[in-house]
Design a protein that fits this description.
By secondary structure, the chain is an alpha+beta fold. The chain has one domain: Clavaminate synthase-like (Double-stranded beta-helix, 4-Layer Sandwich), CATH 3.60.130.10. It is built from eight helices and 15 strands. It has a seven-stranded mixed sheet with strand order 1-2-3-13-5-15-4. Strand 2, helix 1 and strand 3 form a beta-alpha-beta unit. It starts with a strand and ends in a 6-residue tail after the last strand.
């Protein structure tokens, strides 16, 4: 089957149709999807029903190696999903009940409402993330994606020259710490800052993009206040409406995005009343940015 791509926004995102991602794909189909990612950075697959864990994992492995397990802030009752390759993006505890308002997993999950790039806090950051919708609230809970390529293109020449060789430090201490979430000693060690380039060049297309995230808190060689002012200014620029696609979820949707060229954030919903169950797999980029 040959997939077709229907743009969903002037600069980012397309719906990919004409292909059943629940079954094994041919090399030609994988190559076509990969080329679609290079062009659109975000692809939406409307499956109608959620993929099983095995199906989502198999589809993910078409595009590279999954991220290794890493330290996560868990619910008071422990992990809900046993498979370490599946990230539990939900407001549910291991017994399926909605998390208490003060549960650390819920509070940590609020950080998803900040603009970020998945795993930018890891020495080798993520390439693709794939998020599959199992249970959705009746209202809210959209996910927004910002095109960091288009945002870079629209910077003036002076700003591009200023930021070209800057190195940032990324950590969950900066993002979740800004929300007032306390950390254990083990988490502080696991969340130690890592170095990432502020401007990245896509290895296949050669296109440059900003590598921003709420996890970015410092710039090497800069005073912290000055660094944070620049990062905030760039984030405000990069998340203007003309660069942002907002995805309204349907059950069964699988959304795949390139963390090298996008930022994303979740939008609020009433998580004290309605369950929301999405499950993410992530492909590592394989090489550090620095």
């Amino acid at each position: 089957m040959t997939p077709t791509f229907t743009p969903l926004h002037p600069v980012i995102a397309a719906e990919c149709s004409g292909i059943d991602i629940s079954r094994p794909l041919s090399p030609e189909e994988v190559a076509a999807i990969d080329a679609g990612m290079d062009k659109y950075a975000v692809l939406v697959f409307r499956q109608g029903e959620p993929l099983t864990t095995a199906q989502q994992t198999a589809f993910t492995l078409n595009f590279g190696e999954q991220e290794p397990p890493y330290t996560q802030i868990q619910a008071a009752g422990g992990a809900r999903i046993a498979d370490a390759g599946i990230a539990d993006i939900s407001n549910l505890g291991p017994d399926g009940s909605i998390l208490a308002r003060d549960d650390r997993k819920r509070l940590s999950g609020l950080g998803n409402q900040l603009w970020h790039s998945d795993s930018s806090y890891m020495h080798i950051p993520a390439r693709y993330s794939l998020l599959n919708a199992h249970v959705l609230p009746p209202d809210g809970g959209d996910t927004q994606f910002a095109d960091m390529r288009a945002a870079y293109d629209m910077l003036d020449a002076k700003t591009k020259a200023r930021i070209e060789n800057l190195i940032c430090e990324h950590s969950r201490i900066f993002s979740k710490g800004a929300l007032g979430i306390p950390f254990t000693e083990t988490e502080l060690q696991a969340f130690a800052p890592v170095r990432q380039r502020l401007v990245r060049t896509h290895r296949k297309t050669g296109r440059k993009s900003l590598f921003l995230s709420s996890h970015a808190g410092r710039i090497e060689g800069w005073p912290v206040p000055e660094a944070q002012m620049l990062l905030r200014e760039l984030t405000e620029h990069a998340t203007q409406r003309e660069f942002v696609y907002s995805h309204k979820w349907r059950k069964g949707d699988l959304v795949m995005w390139d963390n090298r060229t996008t930022m994303h954030r979740a939008r609020p919903y009433d998580d004290s009343v309605y369950p929301r169950d999405l499950r993410r797999t992530t492909v590592t980029d394989g090489v550090p940015t620095v």
